[in-house]
Amino acid sequence: MRVRLLGTAAGGGSPQWNCGCATCRAVRTNAHGTVPRSQSCVALSADGIRWFLLNASPDARIQIEGFEPLLPSAGNLRGTGVEGVLITNADLDHTLGLFQLREGPPLDIHATQGVRRALTEGLSLESVLSRYCGIVWHTPSISPAPLLYADGTPSGLLYEAFTLPGKPPRYMGTEAEPSDGDCVGYRFMDQATGGILVFLPDAAVLTEYVLTKMIDADVLLLDGTFWSENEMEQMGVGSTPAAKMGHLPVGGANGSLAQIASLPISRRIFMHINNTNPMLLADSPERAAVEAAGCEVGFDGMELMI
Questions:
Q1: CA-to-CA distance for 302 and 306, rounded, in angstroms?
Q2: Cβ count near 27 (within 10 Å)
Q3: Distance in angstroms (rounded) separating the CA atoms of residues 105 and 132
Q4: pLDDT for 179-213, tens place per residue?
Q5: Could you give the 3-state DSSP secondary structure of residue 209?
Q6: Confidence check: pLDDT of 176 > 90
Q7: Which of 135, 201, 241, 251 has a 20 to 30 A CA-CA distance from 295?
Q8: CB contact at 8 A, 60 and 95
């Protein structure tokens, strides 16, 4: 299984266009070992030719342009290596890129009923794309099942979705009732190598159930949105705590770093990192803590073979 991190930032990217926090300023001035990051998206493939996107960020066009296997193959006027998109939740930073894929063939989208409902009712995705490429919806299996290419043939990957604590996206309004399918993680297995990838860009809490899904993974891609619970307030750019936004902080005694540090996973990589998170600074104590625990901070263009 070949994996490419197309984007590793949370919503807004890093730097965020209207943010002047210390971390964003460091990125703009190339200070403290920072690098720009586009919004969270991953591509994976069993054969290196046909690919699936994990979420579709608002930066999808530039991410596709920056990765040749997703572009039209030599001699073709139109085409793409993208076979389908698997959505973890209906947040804007995970789904706005779907509109950018309208120029292609019918778009295969794997999403729970809750995510599909939010995209259809809240963003009118189905109504809009029906006038362009159209959508082929797939409800992801809750047990290992073949991940199929758009033509129905097997990709060589098995996949399953597992429920995470979550809530409907903000654009659905406060009256929207939470459901079990508002947020999921994905688990992939390469049938040829046995390699396992777990994808969790949004995690409000790491329950025992969630830990069982990741414990035997070769690679874990995990929510790295915030370092601390009150990071937005501490940085002077907001007041909403991490928990209320649906993210478990990386740092602290009960943070995700402490919970995964001892798991027997070969590579544990944080992504979906907010522009305020100090672990984006290569020379920060927070980055040192991540690396001391044997974990990594993902970056755009990072590639993995599993």
A1: 13
A2: 23
A3: 9
A4: 889 999 999 999 999 999 999 999 999 999 999 99
A5: helix
A6: no
A7: 241
A8: no
Q: What is the pTM of this model?
A: 0.97
Q: What angle do CA 213, 6, 11 make, to 5 degrees?
A: 80
Distance CA 14, CA 202 (A): 17
Give the pair of three-digit tokens for residue 203. Answer: 């995690």
Check the CA dihedral 72-73-74-78 and report its sign. negative
Q: Three-class SS of residue 289?
A: helix
Q: What is the mean pLDDT of the chain?
A: 96
Assess contact for 130 and 119: CB atoms under 8 A: no
DSSP class of residue 245?
Answer: G
Cβ distance 43 to 6 under 8 Å? Answer: yes
CA neighbor of 171 nearest in space, from 117, 229, 225 = 117
Residue 234 has which token pair? Answer: 């501490």
Question: pLDDT of 204-237, one tens digit each?
Answer: 999 999 999 999 999 999 999 999 999 999 999 9
Query: What is the distance, to the nearest Å, from the Cα of residue 285 to the centroid of all Cα atoms in its chain?
Result: 25
Sheet holding 184-190, edge to edge: 145-148, 154-163, 184-190, 196-200, 219-223, 267-271, 296-297
Could you give the count of Cα atoms lying within 13 Å of 62 in the half-sphere of its Cβ?
Answer: 11
Q: Minimal CA–CA distance to 251: which of 265, 235, 238, 270?
A: 270
